[in-house]
Structures are given as structure tokens and as C-alpha cells.
Write a structure and sequence with these properties.
There is one protein chain. The chain is α/β, with parallel strands linked by helices. The chain is globular, with a radius of gyration of 13 Å. The strands form 2 sheets. The protein has a 5-stranded mixed beta sheet, with helices on both faces.
Length: 97
């Protein structure tokens, strides 16, 4: 199973990049895709830039080229409450602190 993580900005993708092991970087359609492993799971992450069209392009590439089974839209341009815990690797539901 491969997980794709889409972030709107570079500061939003930074925490995921620091968690990636065995990282490789590729460019497609002016986007940088970071591949690696988090908790022994295959992950591809990137920042798409702000706008629904950019996110749609990024998600389509994650599906078509990287064959991601799960797509996560992380943070939504800082629109998600910081207290929301989203750690899918531990298979917990998001809960408020």
C-alpha cells in the first residue's frame, strides 16, 4: 500500500519530510515529489501550491504515476485546527485534544 500526502505549502510538507526515510525526489509537472518510508509504509508527499486545480493535478499524478492507494490532504492551507490529531499510521480516528 502506498500513501500520497498532498500539502498546499512548503511549511506544511516539512514535518512529513523530516519523517521520511530512504528519500528520493523527482519532478513532474513543475512539482517535486518526495518518496520514502514512514513507519515502514511507502509514502509520496509534495506541496502542490494553493488552489484546487494544483491539488487536483498533484492528486492525479499520485494516482496515475505513483499508484497511491490512499490520498491524504494534509492541513488544507492551515485551515485545520492545530489541535486535531491525525496520525493514520497508528490507525486512530482524529480526535480533539
Amino acid at each position: 500500500m502506498r500513501i500520497g500526502i498532498v500539502c498546499a505549502g512548503d511549511s506544511e510538507v516539512a514535518p512529513f519530510l523530516s519523517m521520511l526515510n530512504e528519500t528520493s525526489v523527482t519532478e513532474k509537472s513543475l512539482l517535486k515529489f518526495y518518496e520514502g518510508k514512514i513507519e515502514n509504509r511507502d509514502v509520496v508527499t509534495l506541496f502542490s501550491g494553493v488552489c484546487k486545480v494544483n491539488a487536483a493535478i498533484a492528486v492525479q499524478i499520485l494516482i496515475d504515476i505513483y499508484k497511491c492507494d490512499i490520498i491524504i490532504n494534509a492541513r488544507t492551507a492551515r485551515g485545520i485546527d492545530e489541535r486535531l490529531l491525525i496520525w493514520w499510521f497508528q490507525q486512530k480516528l482524529p480526535i480533539m485534544m
